[in-house]
Amino acid sequence: MSSMLVAEDLSAVGGISLSAAVPVLTAMDYQVAALPTSLLSTHTSGYGRPAVVNLADWLPKVFEHWTTAQLDFQQGLIGYVGTVELCQLLHDYLAQQKLDLLVVDPVMGDLGQLYSGFDDQYVTAMRQLIQLADVILPNVTEASLLAGLPYTTQPDLPTILTALQKLLKPGAHAVITDVTQNDQIGCAWLTADGVQFIGEPRLAGHYNGTGDTLAAVIAGLLGRGFSLTRTLELANQWLHIAVAETLADKRADERQGVALGGLLRAILTLG
């Protein structure tokens, strides 16, 4: 059983971030080391202002303990971090590890804007963190911010992906995760043959936690040895299943993350 370090926020209510990643990766037969970067009473969409605990004082103690205990992780997934200080702490720790795979979802904005509380210093800190990554998973907004290019809903994919690749180490891949083409939504990345795209039909509505779920699936499949292309095919198919199940459930509270039942069953049938 491989071990996967997952560092992102933990919301007590909302079904996103760590709450989504842990069951997904556990179903993929990983031993998950769940490292919350912050604790929230709820996620930040629709519940009002949550109670938040910043864990900047705790993380160095965790890393010291893990080092003393000689804990080693084969893979890593980094999601929402939250502060420049935490980005630097994670960077310094991960730079000393010998991971086979590091996937970074540089969560910091959407719809052309940085999330509240973030600034250019945070973008700079995230650029440093992704230098360690084997795969990064920005949305279009985050890709634009990292690349230093203007945001548009229909970006020039060759230009923005080329700019992102220059930020990464040799052999790493930038994958933009919310690209729309011909009524489909999916992932775009660059190969020697040009821009590649894999997507699924866009379903109506907005669903919290889709990016977190997609990132966990991608990290899990890559860690199990699937190619990037096959990983993105399965990840988009399974996320479509999750969103379709959520839509069919007609939930009374739309603030919750996506339904994971069908997605987890798909993972388990993979063997």
UniProtKB/TrEMBL annotation:
Whether NADP counts among this entry's keywords is no
Alphabetical UniProt keywords: ATP-binding, Kinase, Nucleotide-binding, Transferase
Q: Report a single Gene Ontology molecular function.
A: kinase activity
In Pfam terms, one family for this protein is Phos_pyr_kin
Gene3D superfamilies per record: 3.40.1190.20
Q: Which domain of life is it from?
A: Bacteria
Q: Which residues form a coiled coil?
A: none
Cell wall biogenesis/degradation among the record's keywords? Answer: no
Spell out the InterPro entries in the cross-references: PM/HMP-P_kinase-1 (IPR013749), PyrdxlKinase (IPR004625), Ribokinase-like (IPR029056)
Location of the Pyridoxamine kinase/Phosphomethylpyrimidine kinase domain: 73-247
EC? 2.7.1.35
PANTHER family in alphabetical order: PYRIDOXAL KINASE
In Swiss-Prot or TrEMBL terms, this protein is called: pyridoxal kinase
The organism named in the record is: Lactiplantibacillus nangangensis
